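yo

u said u wanted the structure for the complex thing, so here. seqs first:
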Amino acid sequence: GESVGLHLPTLSVQEGDNSIINCAYSNSASDYFIWYKQESGKGPQFIIDIRSNMDKRQGQRVTVLLNKTVKHLSLQIAATQPGDSAVYFCAENSKIIFGSGTRLSIRP
Amino acid sequence: DAGVIQSPRHEVTEMGQEVTLRCKPISGHNSLFWYRQTMMRGLELLIYFNNNVPIDDSGMPEDRFSAKMPNASFSTLKIQPSEPRDSAVYFCASSILQGMYNEQFFGPGTRLTVL
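structre next:
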């Protein structure tokens, strides 16, 4: 029979532009969220986290926005660089399950 | 800090053989997770331990898979007998169980190929 691979959403961004990666979560009781970055051949690495009592948190070149009303999380990367190429996962603490991820590719 | 250590980094074996993957979590961490990653299914949680006790093994695909954590500094994931569909990258991660806040630190993974 036909096999179906995992189709990762892909975001292609021009180098230097800003990137926005989105994530929808399911459990309104989740109160802690994490973004992970996975580069090719490596395990996921922590980027930034946010607690549910916050709407926004900033790190170095990254910002996470949380909209609890619509259960939506986004990761913004400023001035995207080639080293940002990776698969990005969001995770919520109410269940230890990672989203399917979004692949970010950078155009020179 | 050494980070999470996994061994071997690569394993090639034949169908039917037993495979044992090993993990040493970060010292002081009291939660340990085993994940499997494939192109078909993405990143899947297989099992996790808190204070060496298995908490949720609902992600373990079959009885062929078993995991142990005999002490706070060592865990194994065993597949017996192995099958080609078990080919994947297996990640171990550890974290500090502090209430509900649990950033996970991942190891480099073990790439398993079952022929």
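The interface with chain A takes residues 4, 33, 38-43, 45, 48, 56, 91, 93, 100-109 of chain B (CB under 8 Å). The mean pLDDT of chain B is 92.
cya
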